[in-house]
Write a structure and sequence with these properties.
It holds the Pfam family DUF3493. With about 325 residues, the protein is of the alpha+beta class. It has helices spanning about 1-10, 25-35, 75-85, 90-120, 130-170, 200-210, 215-220, 245-255, 260-275, 305-310; strands at about 60, 175, 180-185, 190-200, 220-230, 260, 285-290, 295-300. The protein is elongated, with a radius of gyration of 27 Å.
C-alpha cells in the first residue's frame, strides 16, 4: 500500500488548448454574420489597476461564481463535455482514487482478520506489532484517498455548476439592431462583453464614465450590454459635431447591443445575486472573457481603466502572443 500511495502523487495536468487569433477590425461584421465557433483556452491572472476616479470604485463581489452544487438533472451534456475538456484527467484520477481505496480496504480487512487471529493465539503474539503496523498503513491510505476523492468530486460539481450557469448566460438573447437578434454564445471568440445591470441612472453614469476609454476598449474587443433592471433603458446622447465625428461612431459601436427578452435577463440576474448574497437592488457588472466565460464581476461601476490595463488588443503585433490573457475564470 505504501507504493500505491506514492503512485498517487504523479498528478496529471490538462494540456493547454489555444485559441486562434481574432481580428478586432471585423468585430461588427462577424456579429452580423454570426459565423462563430466554440473555443476554450487557459487564462492568466493580471493584477487590477487602482481606480483613479472615486465614482468608479467597485467592490469585488462575485455574482456569477459559487460553489453551490447543481443537481444532475440540471446539468446539460454540453456542460459535461466542457468540463471534460477543461479537466481531461480528472476522471482518471478519481478512478485511481477509488481503486486505491478498494485496495486499502481489502488489505485492511485481511490485516484485521490476521490481527484477531494473532490476539486469540498466544503463540502468535510476536506477530501483533507487525500486523498492527500494516493495518494502520491500510487505514491511513484509505483515509487519504477518500479525502482526495471527496475534494476532486467537490471540484467537479462546482465546475459543472459554474459551466451550467455560464451556459444559461450564453443562451440569453441580444439585439444588435432593429432586425437582428442573436444569443450571447454567437459572440464567443469575437468580443469581450461587459454587462452593466442596474437602474437607469446607473446605466447613464456608466455610459459617461466609459467615454475616455472608448478607443482602447474597442481595440480590446469590448462591447457593452446595458441592462436596465427598472425597465427604463436610457436613450444615449451622442454628440454630433465635427470635433466628435470620429468618436461618435465608436461610441455607438461600443454601446450598440441591448438585451432581448427583459424578463429572461432579469430572472438570470436575480438568481446570480441570490447565490452570491448580493442585494437585489444593487447595481452590478459582469465582465466576460473572449470565450464567453465570466472573468470578473462586482457591485458598482465597471472599472473601465482596469479593463484597458489588463486586456490585450485583439489585433496587432502582440495579439497572438497574448491570446487568452483575459484573466482567471470566476
Amino acid at each position: 500500500m505504501v507504493s500505491a500511495a506514492a503512485a498517487l502523487f504523479n498528478v496529471f495536468k490538462p494540456p493547454n488548448i489555444p485559441r486562434h487569433k481574432v481580428n478586432g477590425s471585423r468585430i461588427c461584421s462577424q456579429i452580423m454574420n454570426q459565423t462563430v465557433k466554440f473555443r476554450l483556452f487557459p487564462s492568466t491572472n493580471v493584477p487590477f489597476q487602482a481606480q483613479s476616479n472615486p465614482r468608479q470604485t467597485s467592490s469585488t463581489v462575485t455574482c456569477s461564481a459559487t460553489d453551490k452544487p447543481t443537481s444532475s438533472s440540471e446539468i446539460s451534456s454540453t456542460a459535461r463535455i466542457r468540463s471534460e475538456v477543461l479537466s481531461p484527467f480528472r476522471s482518471v484520477r478519481m478512478f485511481f482514487y477509488l481503486a486505491f481505496m478498494a485496495s486499502g480496504g481489502l488489505g485492511g480487512l485481511i490485516a484485521a482478520t490476521q490481527l484477531i487471529g494473532a490476539l486469540a493465539n498466544p503463540s502468535r503474539a510476536a506477530e501483533v506489532p507487525e500486523i498492527s503496523k500494516g493495518l494502520a498503513i491500510d487505514l491511513g491510505a484509505v483515509s487519504v484517498f477518500a479525502f482526495l476523492y471527496s475534494r476532486e468530486n467537490n471540484a467537479k460539481n462546482a465546475q459543472l455548476a459554474r459551466l451550467s450557469r455560464e451556459e444559461s448566460l450564453s443562451n440569453l438573447k441580444l439585439r444588435v439592431d432593429e432586425k437582428k437578434v442573436i444569443p450571447i454564445s454567437s459572440l464567443r471568440g469575437i468580443a469581450r462583453l461587459v454587462i452593466c445591470a442596474g437602474p437607469e441612472s446607473y446605466i447613464s453614469e456608466s455610459f459617461r464614465l466609459s467615454q475616455p476609454f472608448t478607443d482602447r476598449l474597442l481595440e480590446r474587443g469590448v462591447l457593452v450590454v446595458p441592462f436596465a433592471t427598472d425597465g427604463n433603458l436610457p436613450s444615449f446622447e451622442f454628440e454630433e459635431s465635427e470635433e466628435t465625428s470620429d468618436t461618435t461612431p465608436k461610441r455607438k459601436r461600443l454601446w450598440q447591443l441591448s438585451p432581448f427578452d427583459w424578463s429572461a435577463w432579469l430572472q438570470w440576474l436575480d438568481e446570480q445575486k441570490k447565490m452570491a448574497g448580493v442585494s437585489p437592488e444593487s447595481p452590478v457588472y459582469l465582465s466576460l472573457r473572449m470565450d464567453g466565460r465570466v472573468r470578473g464581476s462586482g457591485v458598482g461601476y465597471p472599472p473601465w481603466n482596469a479593463f484597458v490595463a489588463q486586456l490585450p488588443p485583439v489585433k496587432g503585433l502582440w495579439s497572438g502572443l497574448l491570446d487568452g490573457m483575459d484573466g482567471r475564470v470566476l
